[in-house]
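User: Hi! Is it possible to get a structure for several chains at once, not just one? Here's what I have:
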Amino acid sequence: MTTFVLLTVTGLGLGAMYFLIASGLSLIYGLMGVLNFAHGAFITVGSYATWWMSENVFDGVGSAWVRFLVSALCGLVAGAIFAALVELVLIRPLYQRHIEQVLVTVGLSIAFVALVQGIWGPDVHPYTAPGWLHETTTLFGAHIPNDRWVEIATAVAVLVALQLFLRRTRYGLIIRAGVENRAMVTALGIDVRKAFTLVFAIGGVAAALAGALSNVYFGSVTPDRGTSLLIFAFIVVVIGGLGSITGSAIAAVVVGLVQQYANYYGTNWIGDWGLGDLSVLLLLAVVLLVRPRGLAGAVAA
Amino acid sequence: MTAAEAVETRTLLEVRNLHVNLGQSHVLQGVSFDVPEGGVTALLGRNGVGKTTTLRAILGLVGRRGTVRLGGEDLTALATHRIVRRSVGYVPEDRDIFAGLTVEENLRLAERGDEPRYDLVYDLFPELKTRARQRAGTLSGGQQQMVAIARALLNDNRLLLVDEPTKGLAPALVTEFAHVLERLSELTTVLLVEQNLGVVRRIARDAVVLDTGRVVHAGDAKELLAQPELVRRLLSVTAGGHA
Amino acid sequence: MNRRVVADYVWPLAVFGALAFVPKIGLHIPKLFDSSISSPGTLQLLALCLLFGGLALTYDLLFGFTGLLSFGHALYVAIGAYMTNIALTDWHWSFAQALLFTAALAFVVPLVIGTISLRVSGIAFAMVTLAFAQAGSVLVHKDPHHWTHGEEGLGVDYAKLPDFFVGIFNTKYLYWLALGYLGVVFFIARWSVESSPGRIWQAIRENELRVEVLGLRPRAFKLMVFVLASFLATAGGVVYLLLFNSTNPSVTAPNFTLALLLMVVIGGAGSRWGAVLGGILYTYLDDRLAAVGDSSAVQGLPKVLRTPLEQPLFLLGVIFILIVFFLPGGITGLASRGRPGGLRRLEEAIRPGGTVGGTPEAGLADPQEGV
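Assistant: Yes, the chains can be modeled jointly so their relative placement is included. Here is the combined structure:
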């Protein structure tokens, strides 16, 4: 029972990070038709910016908590700016040339990882977050690392914020309509391209947030964190339905939990064959074969 | 028309030499016509001759070569949203309303100026007020058409491009919409693609006929419809019915 | 002889024939290669370039010619490399046995995976192929029964390899092997694309619906090209093993497939020589750009400029982006204007809502079928 609780919370924590990444990917694809491989770079920006800021800029300033929060904030801002720049410089000029847009994000992802490796080396850097995050809380007898709560809370907060944004603001309205029918939105006199940049920026913030949180979850900073999280985020997006935030949320929870349960119980049963990851991949294949549009299908939010 | 009357009707929209290629087919092969200001100009032709494509080409929703001038201003190089902001409203063939949004949100999205004409919209379509919170995807065909037209009414558009508004509607609704279009034609200029010649006879002043991507006839609508032989040759139908 | 036969077969034969003489020519090309082109070091690099020229072409069969975007092509290369290695080194089979085993896998695995994956198309297909490749990657990392040796990679048992592939002085045989591989792939690709199934592949790329309406089953043809391309890729994997004498998990990573994608686009998708040129060029640059990074010219630069220039993948990524912007037809596109047909057809594959290919509408503001 205690193991089950621990697995569940860990799965939710991991799912939380997947959701943060998947939400941006989903919106970007739904609105713009761009499969954004550069999203991994946004994650990495958040991860490295948070780490570098707390090590080098805010070193010794204020309490560990303040350092952590301010560094994370810097990471988010960096993510937003970087994502917006990517959209403006690389994506916008290729308007309506979808395949080129995707290719450009592929090229960027490869170049960016290489750049990060060049600057900070390919090695793993250990990351220490403020004390409380390392401690555990006991729930039903299970000792749960506190960072899981932060991840879950953050994902829920972002989910709520995104829904509010989509439902209550004009740009949210434009985005929801654009996911359904981009051409008609322009035929109403609206310049969708501003929405494109905005959606990229939102994706950048959410991904950077995931990157910052992943430092804590994994206790380290590595150049390939973005790529490895991105693959699972893609799977979450596809299972949940491209363009749907709610779909991504549900799929993220399912994927996170399946990964943990399958890994633990499967390893006990058969041995270490990486069943957690394999189960998720199997789930993807099954969903795609049975319901190619994913759980939620066509509508955003 | 007397010479004085002829001078009075200015040309609002000039379309010159429009060419559009969709995939392998050369859909519009040099379409040229004028839409005079005020009233309804009907764009007629058999299925597949390029009527819808013409409207889309005017808005820049398809790649095209040629010239489009509105009120003397050359719009050809502008992006679609800019053309629309020059006061052009569009009611597409399949309505293209946003199913996941409510009626009210569909209308709100279409707002462009500071004083959207909700008074006009709710006067013509009181149902839209009562169904404001309803998801547009759950509306009937006729109600969706109301939303589609209402969107174009909210702003004081100089020109409305309307594509087969009565398609698929029950006869009673067809009459209603014809009446709506008549009222609209008193307020602004309408370029109307319509297969229902009864509607055309009732409200259109001028007619432009397309055949395989070219204009084959342009002139007074009532004069055209009074010649059954001509109508049959151009539109393959008897003058009373549908093209 | 008509012009097409000359272009398709005579010219390439001449080129390959000329290339076969390379190990006999003690030619020194200073800026391009460190040592004479017949030296083992350079021959190894050239062999690698030719191998990837062939691998890129196997990828192009799928997407340049048939319009199938796969994110998991690396899996088949990995099968070729790893399974042969495991059979030789872990199971102690003979070389012939290992080859037969791998050949059987090369046919059966894509047949099964293709049958499943091709039930969907567009983005869904891309994701399923990614999933299968990732499954392979996971298995390699997890190292069941300690066969793959996970991260550290598995060195091949030299005793099991034929003598002429072992040892530095036999690099020329590896060169000829790679050249032979490229030649075989090239001619098979050319012949199959021109054949009647091949014309159906290109028709599928253009308009799958029309193919179906004609009474043909597109899925059967897609499976055909999928198995063919994967089989040839697995063969390439065996050559890869022989060139490196070891395998490591990098051959299963998504980046491997993405590198193939880059090669094809850089060279020009769906063209006669494009993929091959792209593969050769990319592999060459990946190797040589590292040398550029070490050169004194670059080392003299301030750190801010030096660091990116030292990373070959950074430079390759940037070059790729530049090509996409300014030369979307790739290098062979310099000859033709605008975007190549292959690229435009691929667009259909990934367009939102694209399941069965619809009518290609050039220049149309993107009609979405609702995502």
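The longest strand of chain C covers residues 154-155. Chain C touches chain B through eight residues (CB under 8 Å).

User: Great, thank you!
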